[in-house]
Specification:
Blueprint lengths: L2 H8 L5 E2 L5 H11 L3 E5 L5 E6 H11 L8 H4 L13 H11 L3 E6 L2 E7 H25 L1
Parallel strand pairs: 1-2
Antiparallel strand pairs: 2-3, 4-5
Length: about 140
């Protein structure tokens, strides 16, 4: 299984924010969509960064409630790590573990193809293990 398989199952829709959106507005998006991060997209459609729950907690720890009036651009992580749709699930799991990240933009031919989370990756891997176990049970039952 690879990243393209995850996107095929979950779709390529990406929840995003503008760099000028306040942290309070982004918190509303995260809460209402029940997600842990958004991509910050510029007016030209370029990915400028990612804003996660961790970034927001860091902002609150440093600035208190004043952080909520600041912008996504103020607190986003701008050094992005991305993956291609062809990347294997095992490689993505290793990357997320090594870099201590939970969300990855998927880039294909220089364009945003989707956005995956550690939850998507774990679900994909669990589904794969279940399919393998079922195949082994079928093999044993017919063998």
């Amino acid at each position: 299984m690879n990243v393209a398989g995850i996107l095929k199952g979950k779709g390529a829709d990406v929840i995003s924010a503008r760099p000028s959106d306040t942290i309070a507005a982004v918190c509303n998006i995260l809460g209402s969509k029940r997600i842990g991060a958004v991509l910050v997209i510029g007016a030209d459609g370029d990915i400028l960064g990612i804003l996660s729950e961790r970034d927001i907690v860091r902002g609150l720890a440093e600035c208190g409630n004043e952080c909520l009036a600041q912008t996504a651009a103020d607190w986003m992580t701008s050094s992005l790590i991305t993956v291609a749709p062809s990347e294997t699930i095992d490689n993505v799991m290793a990357l997320m573990t090594q870099k201590r990240i939970r969300h990855l933009p998927v880039i294909e031919e220089g364009k945003l193809a989707g956005f995956i989370s550690i939850g998507d990756v774990v679900k994909s891997r669990m589904d794969e293990v279940e399919r393998e176990a079922a195949a082994l049970r079928d093999y044993i039952a017919t063998g």
